[in-house]
C-alpha cells in the first residue's frame, strides 16, 4: 500500500524512515521523498510518526 502516491512510497518505507530517526514530515520527506509532492499524504505520514513513536522514547532510538 502506498502512503505517498506522488512518489510511490510504500507505507512500510515510511515506517522504516521513521524507525531510522525521521521524526517530522520534513525528515520523512528527506529520507524517502514521501510528502514532498502535493502534500495530501502529510496527515497520513504524521499518523505513522505518531504510531511508530508512541511507545518508543526518543532516547531509545538514538
Ligand atoms: S501523495 Fe504524497 S506528496 Fe502527494
In the CATH hierarchy, the third-tier topology is known as Arc Repressor Mutant, subunit A
Distinct bound molecules? FE2/S2 (inorganic) cluster
Tally the structural domains: 1
**Which CATH first-tier class would you pick?**
Mainly Alpha
Structure description:
The chain is mainly alpha-helical and 62 residues long. It has a single domain (2-61), classed as Orthogonal Bundle (Arc Repressor Mutant, subunit A), CATH 1.10.10. The chain is built from 4 helices and 2 strands. It has helices at 11-19, 25-32, 42-53, 58-61, and strands at 2-4, 9-10. It has a two-stranded antiparallel sheet. The longest helix has 12 residues, at 42-53. The radius of gyration is 11 Å and the shape is elongated. Bound molecules: FE2/S2 (inorganic) cluster.
Keywords:
62 residues, mainly alpha, Arc Repressor Mutant, subunit A, two-stranded antiparallel ribbon, 4 helices, 8% strand, elongated, binds FE2/S2 (inorganic) cluster
A few lines on this structure:
It contains 4 helices and 2 strands. It has 62 residues and is mainly α.
SSE arrangement:
Blueprint: E1 2-4, E2 9-10, H1 11-19, H2 25-32, H3 42-53, H4 58-61
Antiparallel strand pairs: 1-2
Bound molecules: FE2/S2 (inorganic) cluster.
Amino acid at each position: 500500500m502506498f502512503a505517498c502516491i506522488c512518489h510511490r512510497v510504500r507505507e512500510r518505507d515510511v515506517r522504516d524512515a521513521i524507525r531510522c530517526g525521521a521524526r517530522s514530515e520534513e525528515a520523512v520527506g528527506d529520507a524517502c521523498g514521501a510528502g514532498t509532492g502535493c502534500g495530501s499524504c502529510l496527515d497520513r505520514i504524521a499518523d505513522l510518526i505518531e504510531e511508530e513513536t508512541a511507545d518508543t522514547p526518543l532516547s531509545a532510538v538514538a
